[in-house]
């Protein structure tokens, strides 16, 4: 009973972190709905940016508290080396290959253009600077903390082979569902990106690496 209560509370907390992230991003998106009302646009944009800063600071703090309480994998305790940076760029190359295959399948008509990316493109056209800035410099921090850092520490904390495997699998699927809620081939592609990011997190034992990989990936979509 105590275990169920603990896990139930963690599920509620994780969903709350996800909610405040989505709320912040939604407020910024709403600002773009008022292109002819600069005062209203500035109002929603300001609220969204303040909400994002507070929410990201809070989630980052909760992640830090988690690691202080339970950190069997020693996340964040290994030094950054040039060898690790070079390996990160190899993983980035793998992500480029994944993106290329995805684009090719869309071009061939095998996959549909993702609805999530369509929404991102529409938002970017409404407020190019702010929405692109959020997508590249803010969203990756939120998503890596929520889908990798906090999620794995809550539900797959044990440092075992199978626990790490299932942790990457489930967190990647949730990441995919967060971008494509339909059970189709597009979900599989988003999940594959989530799996690669999860693998990076557990391989380097430092959330800065998978966040950097996520940033580089999102940067490609806005260039």
TrEMBL record:
Keyword set includes Transmembrane: yes
Extent of the signal sequence: none
GO molecular function terms attached to this record: endopeptidase activity
Keywords: Hydrolase, Membrane, Protease, Transmembrane, Transmembrane helix
Domain (CAAX prenyl protease 2/Lysostaphin resistance protein A-like): residue spans on this chain: 127-220
One GO process term, biological-process aspect: CAAX-box protein maturation
Chain segments annotated as transmembrane: 12-32, 44-64, 85-113, 133-155, 162-179, 185-204
Pfam families: Rce1-like
PANTHER family associated with the record: CAAX AMINO TERMINAL PROTEASE FAMILY PROTEIN, SLR1288 PROTEIN
Assigned protein family: Belongs to the UPF0177 family.
Protein name from the UniProt record: CAAX amino terminal protease family protein
Organism encoding this protein: Lentilactobacillus senioris DSM 24302 = JCM 17472
UniProt lineage: Bacteria, Bacillati, Bacillota, Bacilli, Lactobacillales
């Amino acid at each position: 009973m105590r275990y169920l209560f603990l896990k139930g509370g963690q599920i509620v907390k994780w969903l709350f972190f996800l909610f405040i992230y989505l709320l912040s991003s939604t407020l910024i998106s709403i600002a773009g709905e008022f292109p002819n009302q600069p005062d209203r646009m500035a109002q929603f944009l300001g609220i969204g940016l303040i909400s994002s800063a507070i929410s990201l600071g809070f989630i980052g703090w909760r992640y830090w508290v988690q690691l202080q309480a339970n950190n069997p994998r020693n996340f964040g305790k290994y030094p950054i080396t040039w060898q690790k940076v070079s390996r990160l760029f190899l993983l980035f190359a793998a992500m480029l290959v994944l993106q290329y295959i995805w684009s090719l399948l869309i071009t061939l008509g095998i996959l549909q253009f993702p609805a999530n990316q369509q929404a991102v493109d529409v938002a970017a056209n409404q407020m190019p600077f702010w929405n692109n800035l959020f997508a590249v410099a803010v969203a990756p921090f939120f998503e890596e903390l929520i889908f990798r850092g906090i999620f794995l520490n809550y539900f797959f904390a044990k440092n075992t082979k199978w626990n790490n495997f299932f942790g990457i699998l489930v967190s990647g699927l949730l990441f995919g569902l967060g971008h494509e809620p339909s059970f189709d081939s597009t979900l599989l592609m988003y999940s594959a990106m989530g799996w690669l990011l999860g693998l990076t997190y557990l391989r380097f034992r430092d959330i800065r690496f998978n966040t950097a990989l996520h940033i580089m990936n999102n940067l490609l979509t806005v260039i």
